[in-house]
Write a structure and sequence with these properties.
The chain is mainly β. It is 15% helix and 46% strand.
Length: 121
């Protein structure tokens, strides 16, 4: 009985790992806002099957987090927009994977990009 439970646990782990988006590259293509304005960015993303629906893009700053709206511009480029002003010079773009089976966030952050490293265009 214990072996069956272990096998089922291992199977669940393998299946959930396959259902999460595998991202191999994230970079800010252009930051289209000034500090103090609402976030608007073009971001390059390379993921398995380019399934962006399993990715969550979040601006993380001292005042909290904001999940950004995503518009796919092409297979590798997305436009991210938010409504809360970015006031923190150390704000970061966080990209998280979502487990498609139950809609829960994975516990591991995939990418973290400091927004102040990129000049507005």
């Amino acid at each position: 009985m214990a072996n069956i439970v272990k096998s089922l646990g291992l199977l669940a782990l393998v299946c959930s790992a396959q259902s999460m988006a595998q991202v191999s590259h994230v970079s800010v293509n252009s930051r289209m806002f000034e500090l103090g304005g609402y976030p608007k960015l073009r971001v390059n993303v390379i993921a398995d099957n380019q399934d962006m629906s399993r990715l969550e893009f979040v601006v993380q700053q001292a005042g909290g987090e904001e999940k950004l709206m995503v518009e796919a511009l092409n297979r590798f480029l997305v436009l991210l927009t938010g409504v809360e002003d970015v006031k923190d010079d150390n704000a970061k773009l966080l990209v998280r994977s979502i487990d498609s089976a139950d809609g829960m966030r994975s516990k591991v952050s995939i990418y973290l990009v400091r927004l102040s490293q990129h000049r507005p265009r």
